[in-house]
What we know:
- The chain is α+β, with helices and mostly antiparallel strands.
- The N and C termini lie far apart (about 40 Å).
- Strands 1, 5, 6, 7 and 8 form a five-stranded antiparallel beta sheet that branches. A three-stranded antiparallel beta sheet has the order 2-3-4.
- Strand 5 (about 85-90) and strand 6 (about 95-110) form a beta hairpin.
- It is built from four helices and eight strands.
- It is elongated and about 50 Å long.
- It has one domain.
Amino acid sequence: MILKYRARFIACLFFVLFNAQAKILKDEVISIGEEEYSFSSVCKKMLKMNAPLIEIKNISNLDCMGKIVPVYKFCDEQLADDPYYIRGFIDKIKRKVVCKKGKKVILKLTCDSPGVNCKDTELACFNLQQKYAARLKLDHHSKFKNKKVDVLNCYFSSKTSLSLPK
């Protein structure tokens, strides 16, 4: 039971910190697991050397002796054969890099979020895919009004199982 709430807390923390500017209304993940790695192993693999001084730059980047390492690149390489890899982030509490895997991601963002252009919903969702649902396929994209605000919907899954009108 504690693990369930801990995972939800970490996911919420990730999105609050990672998207301080974006207005994410919903980020639902059907998770199938995650893998954790020490900061030193991430720096060693990405820089091909030991880094005795490692700092957290932000929720998605490590500073390994002055060189910035995006953790999504590490996770992408580390889980190269895993079709369910969706995103990488830093767990500040455990001081680990987490590579998350999932079968489905549902995103809802306000269209006034930085970097979100809702004129072309398919393109907007495609641009969000690398950060939120790296290896999943876009099943559905749409826009609707919610309390006078335009909202972008993006549904990603491991296989196309949903036939919704676009």
